């Protein structure tokens, strides 16, 4: 009970209070800062536990986003989720209104995050927001899908980058969502390819010391081929799932990078990290 990331208020009699305090002494947390607030109410103890490590997950309600939120929470981190709906596992949620334009979204998200964090900094900002839509140049939905892809990938990546300039610790980690397919032409999914190529360019620009990010921040791009998500299994039921990358593997790799373990550096040869199948090996680097 003593290691918890939630706020609890309970009323105890004298004996109960003694037992509760004793249990805290028996099982001290190793990664949480505990703050005890005694109120004027008789024997009331209010326990507030705050993780010393913090991460922002943009797209925290997507298939991969939910897995990442859960993984970081299991490690005792404070987690903020940014998405169009709330993630119950996160400590804080910013609900993005998709009817807002780009400037309105940036203003709303920035103000909301600043209000939640106050003066504290985060160790990592990980953007896994996005989606997929097909269509060539002669598709009736070409422009519609291109607009959607731009909003999902480029808007979120740009806003995540702006957040990093304000709230990311020096030496922190910024991860943005690229795509392996967008390293070349994407005739059958032009809107998707254009948006992901723009994110790739943003990643390159952010790696420059003059990008405006805090000192020694590392910016990396995730370029998955196929992630093992429920939606991918639904739409590709006959595929060989063993060749897909598990969400647990991606989540654990991102967690290690957030701790600066096995993390690639800001180098032009290391921008794009490919996740293949979950075989217990480090991701291949290009």
TrEMBL record:
Source organism per entry reads: Lepeophtheirus salmonis
Q: Which reaction does it catalyse?
A: 5,6,7,8-tetrahydropteridine + NADP(+) = 6,7-dihydropteridine + NADPH + H(+); 5,6,7,8-tetrahydropteridine + NAD(+) = 6,7-dihydropteridine + NADH + H(+)
What the entry lists under SUPFAM superfamilies is as follows: NAD(P)-binding Rossmann-fold domains
Key word Transmembrane helix present: no
Q: What does the sequence similarity comment in the record state about its family? A: Belongs to the short-chain dehydrogenases/reductases (SDR) family.
Q: Which UniProt keywords apply?
A: NADP, Oxidoreductase, Tetrahydrobiopterin biosynthesis
Q: Which GO terms describe its biological process?
A: L-phenylalanine catabolic process; tetrahydrobiopterin biosynthetic process
User: Can you tell which superkingdom this protein's organism belongs to?
Assistant: Eukaryota
Q: Show the stretches that span the lipid bilayer.
A: none
Task: Give the protein's function.
Answer: Catalyzes the conversion of quinonoid dihydrobiopterin into tetrahydrobiopterin.
The lineage is: Eukaryota, Metazoa, Ecdysozoa, Arthropoda, Crustacea
Which InterPro entries does the entry mention? NAD(P)-bd_dom_sf, Sc_DH/Rdtase_CS, SDR_fam
Protein name per UniProt: Dihydropteridine reductase
**Recorded E.C. number(s)?**
1.5.1.34
Question: What's its top-level EC category?
Answer: oxidoreductase
